[in-house]
Amino acid sequence: MRCVVDNTLKFKEKLEEYLEDCELIINEPLKNHTTFKVGGTADLFAIPNNYEDIIRMIDFCKKNKMKYYVLGNGSNVLVRDAGYRGLIIKTSHLNEIKVQGKYVIAQCGAELKDVAKICTKHSLTGFEFACGIPGSIGGAIAMNAGAYDGEMKDIVEECVVIDDELKIKTLSREQLELSYRNSAIQKYGYIALEVKIKLDNGDNKNIKEKVEDLTNRREEKQPLDVQSAGSTFKRAPGHYTGKLIQDSGLKGYSIGGAQISNKHAGFVINKGDATANDILNLIGHIQKVVKENYDVELEPEVRIIGEE
Ligand SMILES: Cc1cc2nc3c(=O)[nH]c(=O)nc-3n(C[C@H](O)[C@H](O)[C@H](O)COP(=O)(O)OP(=O)(O)OC[C@H]3O[C@@H](n4cnc5c(N)ncnc54)[C@H](O)[C@@H]3O)c2cc1C
């Protein structure tokens, strides 16, 4: 144990020498950075203030064979209880949003709700679908987030990324290979730095009404007052996942502090004292029961990280 901490401290000191404007934290609890609010600590944790420091961090990690992981708002990530042996890079300080005519350019850490507010202020329509998704735009492009009548794929024009050779380059919509909850960013391990979306001029009153309507629909159907990562599983082709779970008689079923929401069976929630293990066991139980009942394999949408 002692040896691991000494080693982490050595890495921290060495890496901080390379960085221009970022301090590193040792043993940061990741439950403070995910909406599930569970999981262990990260050996090293950073919130960079510029793109160059991200490149320096990854370069250092690659050279020193250290793992790294980019975290946006942590609204689709489950961290295992044993934590993450490597560097977590959280994007929340990179959150500028600019409007240029019908284009909105947002840095990766900008929250979708803030982008939506700016779109409304400028009477730009097309982004309303994302107003209630509690993620960052970097996480949304990586996951091709979508809701109701829209998804990122419909509005993205281009995205500036760090590629696998640590070069900054701009990817077109086609190059982003956006598909259901997937993208080139996930596939090739790129890091999204800046997302440019193209919207239409709209009527301010209509935009506000649509945002309000979608917010009400979300509040009515989803357990937004408790901790979760949204829909736990991807949509199974030809099925509504929530219905498969509900029809299996699992609504309200719990393991430890993890429960299948009584409001929406597609959501696994943390009742307050769940461990990541409770959530993982519940995910496994749902998969087993749904497979037995309907011969459907449910794939988690939530990204699971950390030591097993
Ligand atoms: C209550 C609730 C409701 C939700 N509703 C929806 C919904 O309607 N539709 C929907 O699609 N999702 C929904 N989600 C899930 C989640 O909010 C989205 O997937 C969101 O886009 C994730 O963004 P994030 O910043 O939180 O990403 P994180 O959870 O931090 O990360 C998700 C993935 O993206 C990667 N990532 C994050 N930032 C970057 C970056 N800059 N570059 C490269 N990779 C990156 C991470 O490594 C990880 O693999 C919901 C979640 C909750 C809690």
UniProtKB/TrEMBL annotation:
Entry keywords, A to Z: Cell cycle, Cell division, Cell shape, Cell wall biogenesis/degradation, Cytoplasm, FAD, Flavoprotein, NADP, Oxidoreductase, Peptidoglycan synthesis
Subcellular localization, as worded in the UniProt entry: Cytoplasm
Enzyme Commission number(s) from the entry: 1.3.1.98
Recorded catalytic activity of this chain's protein: UDP-N-acetyl-alpha-D-muramate + NADP(+) = UDP-N-acetyl-3-O-(1-carboxyvinyl)-alpha-D-glucosamine + NADPH + H(+)
Domain of life: Bacteria
InterPro entries in the cross-refs: FAD-bd_PCMH, FAD-bd_PCMH-like_sf, FAD-bd_PCMH_sub1, FAD-bd_PCMH_sub2, MurB, MurB_C, MurB_C_sf, Oxid_FAD_bind_N
Enzyme class per UniProt: oxidoreductase
Domain FAD-binding PCMH-type: 38-202
Protein name: UDP-N-acetylenolpyruvoylglucosamine reductase
Organism the protein comes from: Oceanirhabdus seepicola
Gene: murB
